[in-house]
Amino acid sequence: MKDAQVALLIREGEGLAVEFKERYSSRIDQDIVAFANARGGSILLGVRDDGTVNGETLTNDLKAKINDLARNCKPRISVQLSQSDKVVVVEVQEGTEKPYACGDGYFRRLNGTTQKMSPDELRIMFRDNDPVPFEERKLKGFLGSVSTAKIYAFIKEAGIDIPKLSADDFLRSLKVADAGGVNHAGILFFGDAGQLQRFLPQAQISLIAFKGTTKVHIFDRRDVRDDLLMQFDAAILFIEKHLNVRSEIKGVDRKDIYEIPLEAIREAVVNALMHRDYSITGTQVSVEIFDDRVEITNPGGLPNGLPRKVFGTVSVRRNELIADLFSRLHKVERAGTGIQRMKEVLAAAGLKEPQFDTNGFFRAIFFRSPEFSIASGVEEKGWERLGEELGVRLGETEKKILHAVLNDKRATIKLLSKKLNISTTAVENNIASLKKKKLLHRVGPDRGGHWEVTLK
Predict the structure, then answer these.
(1) Which of 108, 112, 200, 221 sits at a 20 to 30 Å CA gap from 73?
(2) Residues 105 and 7 occupy one common structural domain
(3) How many distinct helices (H) and strands (E) make up the chain?
(4) Residue 453 CB: number of other CB atoms within 10 A?
(5) pLDDT band at 339 (very low <50, low <70, confident <90, very high)
(6) Which range marks the domain in which residue 74 is found?
(7) From start to end of 225-375, where are the E strands?
(8) Residue 311: pLDDT above 70?
(9) What CATH code is carried by the domain that includes residue 64?
(10) CA gap 226, 237 in Å, rounded
(11) Is 74 domain-assigned?
């Protein structure tokens, strides 16, 4: 391997196909096996976990030790050894006789970590496994190039320091391209929107907000047909837009608290994009927001061989390359414990556990918090009916201000102006009207006080 390629791998950090080792250890046979069981990869000896090079020398004795480890794997594995500046490179090709084992057992690669496989995982990983997964196939008829702008956006988001960039070398280092061209995973992340629309029309996400609890009245919709990072970002913004939020002030810090923790939502969205079956045409990932719940759905159900009883305890990646790219963008944890983490986050927020439907499609259902909802005091009656009961008429802006204050009683005039897209004078006039109607009053001073809404 060339010095420039090794330097690029060090800058990118550990991942699905790269492992750093500060020094040689006989336990690298676990990594050799893991790479052979996955997509192949490189072990860089003489590199610390943080990418600092401390150095290792490829002596004849070290060559013999590493080759002995590889030959003693079952089946035996061939490795390529080379010295690149101060780093020893151990290159392992993807195996053709999977599964492989070393003296300590069977191992696999999960993003940037090597993990021992349980009997369940071993059976799942290699039963009915497609020899060429969809994400690794080349796009038939695709003659275009990837977007350099998207490559740089990825590098910036991932925090990779690459002063001089060769797009081909970068894509090959991520295992999304080779001499034969760019594979599906590369196009899903780095192809422009027009290419995705033409060659992979199923690679899109639909974002829909409904009025009520059924799929009848749509009041907001957006369809995103672009790369997977754009789809992820658009989905999170859409969900944030339609969730209720309140704010807490501790000292001088202000913290926005969403009715469903965004950590759980982000995990579900990235899981949908990461685990969907992209070979199924005529489908898309969808985010549907109702008055009482949020549903995030992706085509494909559970991966082949994963029984429902071990769901949430065993991590199987349908799209390992796509998962690795999302991991490099810090959108997903490397440990593969997303389902359990969602449950823990919701439990800590006092919310119901999410529901999961795995019949053909995979659907995650999050239940909205009634404490944040207007329904607890207003929506059950309706704004108009509430006004009638109180003997007052409410303008549209007054309703919006009451709605906003119910969710954030410490909202300032400036914040309400920005949230409702009206002038601060208009906010002040409407607040004065609400005070006159005895629907709103101020508790405490302008600084440090809060609003109270009277709904009785």
Answers:
(1) 112
(2) yes
(3) 16, 19
(4) 16
(5) confident
(6) 3-117
(7) 245-250, 253-258, 285-289, 293-299, 355-357, 361-367
(8) no
(9) 3.30.950.30
(10) 15
(11) yes
